[in-house]
User: Fold these one by one.
Assistant:
Number 1:
Amino acid sequence: SDDEMEQRIWSIKHKMKEKLYIPGHHYQKDEVIQFADAAGDSLQLAQLSAANKEAEFIVFCGVHFMAETADILTDSHQKVILPDMRAGCSMADMANITQTERGWKVMQQTFGDTILPLTYVNSTAAIKAFVGQHGGATVTSSNAKKMLEWAFTQKERILFLPDQHLGRNTAYDLGIPLDEMAIWNPIAERFEYDGDDLQKVKVILWKGHCSVHENFTVANIEEIRRTKPETNIIVHPECSREVVALSDYNGSTNYIIKTLEAAEPGTSWAVGTEMNLVNRLAKEHADKDVFSLNSMMCPCLTMNRIDLAHLLWSLESIEEGLVRNQIIVDPEVSRWAVLALDRMLERA
Ligand code: 13P
Ligand code: SF4
């Protein structure tokens, strides 16, 4: 039963003490997040992984790219474990290294040596390594603006992988007009650009997106404005430009949490992000009216792969002396990827 599984997890945690560390992303289920030694957004989880030098086993409750990042940032004696290998991220899968190298060639032919690559941490270790090797950095949704500003001190143009929406929303916030942004379509291997002169382009947006956040739409916002005009609308910047533009607030999961904490009792909030976090916020803020911007709720199916049973299985395996589902980034990839992560962490 769930009760028995919970008891087992508590008891293993208690026995292993500092040898075990469980970071959990804010999108994890309640049944999992209750065991997290730290819950955080992607940036916080990367910082915490880099800072933890004691734990021999890091059981990462999040998705594959987060566990890879933890492996890159931790020492060689530390083992990072992902309780279910199927916990991937469809956005990270939208940019593979072969596509990136092929696209980069065309971009170099088109713009010469004027481009700095940046990648959202929601990307594979190989993409982070590519970016690190070319002088670029990773970004998260909570420091994208700062990192884009830095990138423009290095080069005239930016390639932003793999989330076109975070890239577009951040560049737009910095005052870059839409006709100075082009999309790189990695399948068709061509630019998608509506403006009059491609050479004006300052930001090249990889054509990737989050399949959870694309479910928050302009129609959802119009509906709420019509039926509950007093409601504040807050969304994650993985939502489209149109949705972000029509919202009242936008920011990372941590920003959303902080904004709700600071909100007055009695206020109403429609939240455009993953379901587990929205439900948790609704529970924690019973004095406010908190609900999902899309009534279909929008779960991240891969984040939800991590559940009580998988977490317990990982911990019991460790107890038996078996390390299952260890995430090991190739050392050569790691060597370059850490450069991209460090360039972010020193400015984060
Ligand atoms: P943040 O936690 O950085 O806001 O990222 C959201 C997300 O989609 C993680 O996959
Ligand atoms: Fe990936 Fe989107 Fe899920 Fe985050 S919410 S892990 S970006 S699919």
Number 2:
Amino acid sequence: VQEIFLKDYKKPSFTIESVNLTFELFEEETNVTNIMKFEKLDESADLVLDAQELELKEVVLDGEVLGSDRYTHDEETLTISNVPQEFTLEIRNRIYPQKNTELEGLYKSGDIFCTQCEPEGFRRITPYLDRPDVMSIFTTTVIADQKKYPILLANGNKVHCHESFNTRHGVTWHDPHPKPSYLFALVAGDLDFITDSFVTASGNDVELNIYVDKGNSDKADHAMKSLINAMKWDEEKYGREYDLDIYNIVAVDSFNMGAMENKGLNIFNSAYVLADADTATDANFMGIESVIAHEYFHNWTGNRITCRNWFQLTLKEGLTVFRDQCFSADMNSSEVQRIQDVKALRERQFVEDASPTAHPIQPKSYISMNNFYTATVYEKGAEVIRMLHTLLGEENYRKATDLYFETFDGQAVRTDDFLWAMKEYGEFDLEHFKLWYDQSGTPSLEVEENYADGKYTLTLTQNVPNKVDGSLQKAMYFPLKIALMDKTGAVAEEKMLIISKESESFMFEGFEEKPVLSINRDFSAPVIIKHQDVDFAFLMQHDTNSFTKYEAAQEFAISILFKLMEDIESDISEYLEAFGALLELDTDLSYKALLLELPSISTLMQKQDVVDFEPLYKAKDKLSYEVAKKYEAKLLKLYFQNHEPLNSALDSKSIAKRALKNRVLSLLSALESKEIAAVAKEQYEHSLTMTDRITALDVLESIDAELSEIAFNDFYNRYKNNTLVMNKYFALLAASPREGVLDRVMALQNDEVYDEKVPNLVRSLIGVFARNYKYFHAKDGYGYKFLSDKIIEIDKINPQMASALSGAFKIYPKMIESNKKLMKATLECIVSTQGISKNTFEIVSKILK
Ligand code: B3K
Ligand code: ZN
């Protein structure tokens, strides 16, 4: 296996002025004709085209058919030496999309032909300089059977419909914007669609289409609405307009990730397009809004300005995630959005940053680029952009992004170029700040407070963990928002500190008594705060920052849970009282639903030096039970106050009521009582929304095996023809807290709905099981054995899927010895498997190191 290094980057030796592609799609094979106009930049260079597993038919250089002695062709490349300064190359090759189970390049999802080219899928379609710094103008003709594939799409604007010949027809598309090959897309199928339009700020009328499987067009309205909102938002917030006459989105069922921002032709996992109240949860609706926006925002941050090489991935991904987070915050509750973003960051990215696969947001090397579409590059990358936004302030940030767009439009650039634009309008230590791009691991900040004679001193000590290879890392530079409050909760002083040293003190004067500190407000920096002796109950009541208030509630519960782990009979009355106060709080209901959530097992696990799940579950069960017992009556009252089974509206108030009501029901489930089971049963049977049904199923599964079985059977029969909903069915069962999960998961693989070739289903059943810590980490090792067997099996079908599943083993070095031993054996079995993909090899071998 070959490792690719950032330091080895070299500019391309050729440019491609234009590329003209013709696809003849058949039931067995697809013929590709690829005509490229080249210019040589480096006199002495051979032309080395990327070509992966391609059947070459003919190579024609400036009209002359080349004999096979004029080029060399292997599994990875097509090389032609002695090419002129300028020339036209015409290549004919054949591919087999129907056999493509990796879902990279051109493949079939059900009856639909579609593509996925980022990062290196285009080389599986036709020979090319498949790298993001080669930008060219694409014209694409798609020819296929008219009856089976009435819809033929590619990037850009439709320029020509060819007269049909026999039973076949063709369409030509032209994209006037130069783009790298990873943004190429093609779709052919028999699809339904909905259409709408958007008039840009400068008056261009854009046609918007969303294509879906036959019969699904009534489920695309929310996606369309989200797209229109995103287009408007980008004009208002960033001054960015859309730049083609048409914007197409296609939903397919088999897709390795969420969606892809191909120029003018986004291809989506159908889970991020299709929704109605009966089949999608409120969270699904939010997810659609955010992914639709994310892909749309890429049109400027990613497509118009793209990455020079794949090490720069966070240039487009971190920035675009930050943009979609801000968009969702504007469309919904900004306080809830921020908490959810941080929760997601901690559950996925903090865990990654503390694992053997930790890497900087700008990695220095990779074996398989596909392994670097990570929470670090995306979500931590977004936090880094957010810090820049905080350092510059809204107005200067906008000036800086304007400058970025003006300066680099149409180019493939680096994170350094973005930072240059930020620095033009910001006063901060750029060189020091850049460490965020080069260092891995989550910094922690130890807090020490001193108060004497009206003076308050805050001493902050930063600790950045060592790199994976053991080498030391430096203190970082970041903005830290704090407030000092008096005993009534009134803010005496609110400040943005700049943290830049390993240890530093800040002094504040003029207090009559020791102020109360609220630190890392809005989560202004992605760091871990270590602060002893905090009056959490006070902050839960009085903190004026919605984020730190939430944080106090979580931290208080965490401290109590650790106390319970030491002694299960510990006194928890103070916490219970504070929780009671939260119940009375008069605040936004969706925010309240978050405040009432007890810390997740993953949150607790991250605080253990050596991970053992059993005591975590025990402590959490105990606390959950005590909370539910003490407040049963109040919780039930809150439940019924907010329970509106016949309301399936999607306005924020209705969503908030459902969120709170369902949180309360989940809390009550700790009682495992007949009464709560009856409430859940009633909710399952009579609510109109998927949100309610899912929570009810979850609750029944955890407290009443019999009722659960009845409800799950009903659910199955009702939705077995809807794969998107069946994903939920598999996921709920794989996440079950009830004994015997592994056996049931194994049996479910034989269900007629389950299909190992469909990534969504694999993620729902196998992926979710691997996050069911209780059973995945079972002491008998069967959880590990099951997953590693699956990884080896799926690796042959879809290496990206297999390497994603391998991520569940990241926790290996932190596990208690007995589990570690079991894990080691299974991991070694994976790496030593003959023919294991480089994707899976890279992840597993890093974990084992
Ligand atoms: N850019 C794509 C991700 C491609 C992943 C390739 N394995 C989707 C996105 O981030 O918007
Ligand atoms: Zn993206």
Number 3:
Amino acid sequence: SAVAEAERTATSSSPAPTGDITNKLKYLFGKEAAETPKDAYHGTAWSVRERLIDSFDKTHEHWKKEDPKFIYYLSAEFLMGRSLTNTVYNLGLEGEYADALRQLGYDMEKVADAERDAALGNGGLGRLAACFLDSIATLDLPGWGYGIRYKYGMFKQVLKNGYQAEQPDIWLTSGNPWEIRRDGLRFEVGFGGRVERKKDGNKEVTVWTPSEKVWAQAYDNPIPGFSTPTTSNLRLWDAQPISEFDLGAFNAGDYDRAMLDRERAEAISAVLYPNDSTPEGKELRLKQQYFFVCASLQDVLSRFKATHGTKFELLPDKACFQLNDTHPTIAVAELMRLLVDVEGLDWDAAWTITTKCLNYTNHTVMPEALEKWPVKVMAKMLPRHMEIIEVINEGWTKWLGGHLKELKAEERAKRISAMSIIHENPWNKEEMLVNMAYLAVVGSSAVNGVAAIHSNIVKDEILNDFYQIFPSKFQNKTNGVTPRRWLAWCNPELASLITETLGSNEWINDTEKLSALRAHASDPTFQKKWAAVKHAKKEKLAALIKKIHGDSVNTNALFDIQIKRIHEYKRQYLNVLSIIWRYKQLKKMTPEQRKKAVPRVCLIGGKAASAYDMAKRIIRLVTAVGDVINKDPETKDLLSLYFLPDYNVTLAETIIPAAELSQHISTAGTEASGTSNMKFQMNGCLIIGTWDGANIEIAEETGVDNVFVFGVRADEINQLRKERKNFKTDPRWDEIMKDIEGGMFGDKDYFKPLVDSVNNMKVGNDWFLVANDFAAYLDAQEEVDKVYKDQSEWLRRSIMYTAGSGKFSSDRTIREYAEDIWHVKPSRPAA
Ligand code: 26M
């Protein structure tokens, strides 16, 4: 009301939102009024931005005064999604801004819907980094993220006749209210050139003269914590040319050449590589990695020097860096270069500091996913770093020799060569490679996996040699997700019900409190309220499906969902095969039998890396099967299948609250953790899954009997792979394969490689053991139907999922990192 608004402005130094929103529109956009939700979004966002900057400044003034130890999260990806709702809620401004927008004739949700996602990441690894920033700020930990300000983020996926097509993600065209360009805050980053030894008095120094230089320009993205005055920062670097253009060439009339430097520089931060799990050995990718690491380390060292001068022995008490996978691992060599070549420290002192400051997180077990750069490529692009890595490797292998001196000479040599950071390419003996994971382990204090089973696989298999040498370096830090974005803000209806039931909203910052919901799990009145929320969320998702596909789906059906990057190891294929089997069963049934069937709406979403041919074929199989079954009048109310194009953070925020069953069905031992499983769990969605990644810990917290667990276990995989040739496939499997090959879903030539990959031992070998788990999966799906028919049992389980999700808050994960690895302590500014 006007009175309340007047009272508010009288007590606050911030401008009244209504006036401020129209003011922003007028002076930043030249608009007299908000004519569209997009206008309203722009006005609102630029207004909220100022509140964010106020809390950012307060926080950083405080931290400057206190000078606490900082954690710097180095990551090539931050999958932030939208910011408006999150910022407004985290800052506690929702009432104010919702009122203001109402006065302007707008509804907050519609306005928020005009924002584009910041999609500077591929999938799990990038979204984890975003959740971590939310928790770091919420826990008042002095910490920043550092990464790349890609001009083009994750590509937009569209379907063309059922096939994936990629379109560029032009996300910055209307400006970005959530960033602050720090004018003048930029660092030089060099590439190529030569390395020389020179005399400086009687000291020999190394001088690297790069042949190419660019600026790294800083952009700050404030990160508001929830229910705290702390606002942290994500600093992203944009690549800019050192000189605007080559004036000589310009004056000579050669305009094209004059622009070449600019293009070459800007290319570095131009696009996010759309690969998830399989690295691409492209030079530009290494350039990106070095670019952001070099700028970030210079930035941190320059701040350190401003307060501590050259007392670098104090650096490990003031700064530590977390390497998000091997992508920023060149930091090991870069920190050595800065300390030795630039600051003049001796090698051993620099090495002690470097290894104290760095820590490495592994996110994948797939051997082909571990980054290795050809020595040739690295020596050309980063000649000094290549030398430094050689020296590190010499020291390392020499030390190893001493450490393993009891071994027989032959055995010792074998072990040393197996652990050498530089080794030959097993598929091309001519080529030498730098193994980035090995460099990260040798250069770090702590190495961690992202779920209990995964950390054990890291210790026992992937990095077992290193584990034997440094057992105490290896840790587990089970992933988590922010309960703000993934429950409280994306599902306010469920959040209100939880708050009302628990008597307070303290669970948002202390998710262990959710366990008190267990006492209500079997209460019919509570179940009824719980079911009503789920149904409302299903209606909302159904409206979205209608908008995308034009079809009305049955909202009384079980909503069965698999959303994640498309990958053979995640086995979307297995899901489709079971849908085909379900369809064939329904077709055989009498109308009487059909009345007893559990209706399902199956949704699959996810992007395939542009060059991942098999993943693209899987997408086409989903759309082709959907085309057949969604048109079948006999069964379409009982079974439908839709592919949801352009799966992203924002879509996930609508899908997850509506899900009743979610699929996490990777070949056991291949999914490091998974994090969407945690988001589904928080929202009371049941899980069908293999004994893999965080599924295991989720099942333990929820009650193993409440989860539909199926399939072979990780420790059986090696043996089963060896025996796969002799595996006798299920007759139902054989039947479905014949259907696909015979053209039941059209496009049979296109599907041939897909069929061969799991059947023809000469071609595929079914590496991910889809056939081995097929029968067990069908059984588990039957069990799902059985439980769904007993709605009170289903709802009891659903409540038990949310109640058991306390462990999977990223607040818990970040507290563990802070205590066991970073040794950073909270430092909260005054309100
Ligand atoms: C590497 C080089 C060049 C281009 C791209 C890459 C690359 C990008 C992303 C490689 C791997 C990438 O991501 C891997 C990833 O997302 N891993 C997932 O990490 C999650 C968070 O820990 C886990 O939950 C998932 O199980 C794991 O698959």
Number 4:
Amino acid sequence: MPQQSGYDFVVVANRLAVDRVTTEDGGTGWRRSPGGLVTALAPIMAQSDGAWVGWHGAADEPLEAFDHQGMHLVPVPLSEQEVEDYYEGFSNATLWPLYHDVIARPAFHRHWFEAYRRVNRRFAEAAADVAAQGATVWVQDYQLQLVPAMLRELRPDVKIGFFNHIPFPPPGLFSQLPWRHSVLRGLLGADLIGFQRESDARNFQRVVRHRLGYYIKSDQVFVPLDAPGPGEDASVNGLHADPARGTAPRQLTAPTEGGFRVAEAKAFPISIDTDKIVELSERPDIIARSQQIRRELGEPDTIFLGVDRLDYTKGIRHRLKAYEELLRDGKLTVGEACLVQVASPSREGVASYQRLREDIEGAVGRINGEYDTLAHTAIRYLHHSYPVEEMVALYLAADVMLVTALRDGMNLVAKEYVAARKSGQGVLVLSEFTGAADQLRQALLINPHDVDELKAAIVKAATIDPEDARRRMRSLRRQVVSNNVQRWAEEFLDRLAAQP
Ligand code: F6P
């Protein structure tokens, strides 16, 4: 590994690409994280002297850099206070709700933003330390939006990409953020800024035009070379660059002379490791496990499945309400129908997530108390995370997948379900407020706020003409098979390499 000269390809993400595991002899080891992003980037890392900079998940624990399966891992330490202020606070109680249509109310605290700025600088410095001359650095997601500009200041020689995995909100919502200028300038430090949906890229471009007055043409943002860095904010430093308040010169006409650099802002919808899901769905032990699941649930006619992190953006409450009303109306009957809801534990230190858990578990208990029989349950609720093998067995067991998110950057579960359904059977009910809805047009698309529409879609999914279901699933599969996460990474990195 090139310790002296640095690494040619550096990924910077809030989480490191490995999870800590307990080894057989009771010691600790590391296992590559199972997510699609790591799967897609690992081969590129191995080919090109790759390093991954990220937090290793524990507070107040310094850790030396180490190598693991062809990847150089650079842990970024966080104190307990920083986990509270940067991760649980600014990232997940300010940005997360703000970027997801204010489904929950975002909290704005100056000391949270100060921690966010400090931690972003630490990530930028760690990346600057390991990147080789002229390296490509790819920064991931909303926790690290200041990193591109900070890194550019430290290392003007490197090529910087940024990808936002969650939605980018419309200007009216984004503008609530007291540190909006810092965030925009942070992102504009990148050469290429990727978003999930066209609408996210448009939202970003509109707010850049409106707030900073930068000229934009064909996704190219012309950033003045003397633009302030992310350390300076109009609301703190005296309104120096807020055209919306009429205090800065407008730059909305095409620049005619130098003094600019170009940052491109454009959509690159992410996908899944399709081959891996298909391969697992064909494995005899996983097929046998899916049959066992159906038997254990009492061989219902229709198994509905929901798989989500336990997050208020996922519309789990809306799903339960529709299902409960269908049981009440006699349109579904326990024994003939069963809803399996996997809700994996998430962000348990954040108050809104704690309240959500109480709400969901209260609703499940109430519905099951009302409708269960001694032999059958209405909802099998599982507050666990499962390995991908078990997830694929669940996908194979489920007749209908319910994805009812109120807002979701992409929703990879929808794509995984489709990838697993090689038989062509199975129905996907999909919220139009997910990024996946832009591509999976043959799903039963619903507005999860419209409970009657959701109920009608659930009934349609349970009673659909098998030929209609197969036709839809074939078309969905074509989409997911031809656009996998490897292709997504390639397209982003090719575009980044082509930036001047
Ligand atoms: O979708 C955004 C995201 O940050 C993912 O990158 C991540 O897998 C998921 O949410 C879980 O987030 P956390 O790292 O907060 O557990």
